[in-house]
């Protein structure tokens, strides 16, 4: 019997961060009407589109519907009320484009993690990321959390909201729970950051 080498692994395709995002047709200078609220189960698909749009470019950890449904209480969303998406059949309530999301996941008695923070590419640099993080921090305070952590590629952004980089060996063990499921497990390029409340 002959041993045959497997064929070489295919080269990864060039990744395009915006491939999955809804296109928003906003004229320059046009005012946006953005509201932040708790997420509901009906928002799951749109949140997945947002997060996995960035995950496709290795900017974020990909998420699936099971994670979203199980952790929907962790999430807040921002919607643009100038961009209607569809109306509910029963109530005729108009739903609007979700342009940002973020979540706070409690890990232990005094620590929590900010996860899945994503702002639609057409809505970045408007202060929305900062607003969402501050909402999540307020939530953490209400819960009695003392330290909020995050893993991120955007260290400079998190610095603007009061986070400081922390050495890997100083991160609490609870922070590593998700790493074994992360596609970047062997080549992690994210930094751990903490904000003491
Ligand atoms: C990083 C991200 C959340 C920032 O959100 P945003 O709404 O564009 O940020 P804001 O407008 O609130 O900016 C707040 C501050 O951070 C800075 N900032 C924003 N994006 C930044 C980035 N990518 N890198 C460094 N600094 C950034 C801004 O200069 C701003 O500072 P200022 O208020 O002093 O001018 C957003 O770009 C995003 O969703 N990126 C893709 C996904 C991602 O990287 N998520 C991070 C968690 S893994």
List the SSEs and their pairings:
Blueprint: E1 34-38, H1 44-55, H2 65-70, E2 75-87, E3 94-106, E4 111-119, H3 128-143, E5 147-152, H4 155-160, E6 164-166, E7 191-196
Parallel strand pairs: 4-5
Antiparallel strand pairs: 1-2, 2-3, 3-4, 5-7, 6-7
The structure holds coenzyme A (COA).
Coenzyme A binds near residues 59, 153 and 160.
**Biggest sheet architecture:** 7 strands, mixed
Question: What's the mean pLDDT score?
Answer: 89
Kindly state the percentage of residues in helix.
Answer: 10-25%
Q: Tell me the CATH architecture.
A: 3-Layer(aba) Sandwich
Strand content: 25-35%
Radius of gyration: 19 Å
Biggest β-sheet: strands ordered side by side in the sheet: 1-2-3-4-5-7-6
Which shape, going by the Cα principal axes? globular
In quaternary terms, these chains amount to single chain
> Any ligands, ions or cofactors bound here, and which?
coenzyme A
Annotated CATH homologous superfamily: Gcn5-related N-acetyltransferase (GNAT)
Please report the distance between the alpha carbons of the first and last residues: 65 Å
Here the CATH topology equals Aminopeptidase
Count of the separate structural domains: 1
CATH class: Alpha Beta
Number of helices: 4
């Amino acid at each position: 019997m002959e041993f045959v080498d497997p064929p070489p692994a295919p080269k990864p395709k060039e990744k395009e961060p915006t491939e999955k995002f809804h296109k928003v047709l906003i004229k320059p200078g046009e005012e946006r009407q953005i509201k932040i609220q708790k997420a509901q189960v009906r928002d799951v698909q749109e949140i997945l589109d947002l997060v996995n749009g960035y995950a496709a470019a290795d900017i974020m950890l990909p998420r699936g519907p099971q994670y979203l449904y199980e952790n929907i209480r962790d999430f807040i969303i921002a919607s643009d009320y100038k961009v209607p998406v569809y109306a509910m059949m029963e109530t005729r309530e108009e739903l609007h484009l979700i342009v940002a999301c973020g979540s706070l996941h409690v890990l232990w008695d005094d620590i929590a993690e900010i996860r899945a923070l994503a702002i639609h590419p057409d809505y970045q640099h408007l202060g929305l990321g900062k607003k969402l993080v501050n909402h999540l921090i307020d939530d953490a305070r209400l819960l009695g959390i003392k330290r909020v952590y995050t893993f991120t590629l955007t260290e400079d952004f998190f610095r603007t909201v009061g986070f400081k980089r922390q050495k890997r060996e100083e991160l609490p063990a609870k922070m590593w729970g998700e790493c074994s499921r992360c596609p970047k497990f062997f080549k992690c390029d994210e930094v751990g950051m903490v904000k003491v409340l």
